[in-house]
Amino acid sequence: MGLGKQKSGKHSKSNMELAIIRLERSLNEQKKQNKKEMKSIKKAIKQNTTINSRLVNLLEMNNQEVATDDSNQGSRLPAVLIDLPSVEVFDKKKKMNIIRKRQYSRDLFVWLLKKYRVETNLPALEESQMESRLCHALEIAKEVVQRCKNKHNLDKTLQWKNVKRYHSEMYRQIEHDAAAYLPLKACTGRWGARLMLSKHWQNVEQGNGQQQ
Questions:
Q1: Angle at Cα 156 formed by Cα 104 and Cα 102, nearest 5°?
Q2: CA dist 199 to 101, 138, 205, Å?
Q3: What is the CA radius of gyration of the chain?
Q4: What is the phi/psi pair of residue 122, to 5°?
Q5: Residue closest to 103 by CA, chosen among 114, 91, 87
Q6: Most CB within 10 Å of its CB: which of 3, 55, 105, 117?
Q7: Are the C-beta atoms of 200 and 177 separated by less than 8 Å?
Q8: H or E stretch covering 28
């Protein structure tokens, strides 16, 4: 009888250990599954956030513009016009400070976005929102440049100043395509489109396509 009790006790202990092992495995598998599901949920949220942000931008920019009939072009004119700002710099040759128009920089287009929103009484954007808009616009500029080169079969060695006949075509394209992100149509003399496209024309020509 004593031997039978010992065997029964060992059997019960063995069953308990197996049950614990199965439980641990089950918990580990469930933990892995939960991680996969959380990863999928986070990815879906991120995608939806990006889509919603772009949709909000499109709707907002659409509300900002003032629809104006143009018998020649049928274009839409912006609510405000913004001149290219000037800056004081030191001229090494003249050895004195001079005033000149600002050149291409990311800060210049952030300034444009801020000024446009102030002039049109729109709420300020967070830095991350402005950076996102600028990144989208820069990608569009790159696409417009490449599209023009491919469409007209232009030599890669041609410089921006040598393709003046295509400037207006590209200006209209980027002002339209990037309207949801930057108010390029508000730039007098199309300085916004000109600076952005000429910068990317140079980058594509050099084969680096880098954004600065």
A1: 10
A2: 16, 10, 10
A3: 30
A4: -100, 150
A5: 87
A6: 117
A7: no
A8: helix 2-64
What is the pTM assigned to this prediction? 0.60
Contacts of 191 (CB under 8 A, 6+ apart): 83, 84, 101
Query: And the tokens for 160?
Result: 């921006």
Beta bridge partners of 98: 89
Q: What is the pLDDT along the chain (212 residues), one digit of tens a residue?
A: 555 555 555 567 677 777 788 888 887 788 778 777 777 766 666 555 555 555 555 555 555 443 333 333 334 556 789 999 999 888 888 888 989 899 999 999 999 999 999 999 999 999 999 999 999 999 999 999 999 999 999 988 899 999 999 999 999 999 999 999 999 999 999 999 999 999 989 765 555 444 44
| Identity of the amino acid at 57 | N
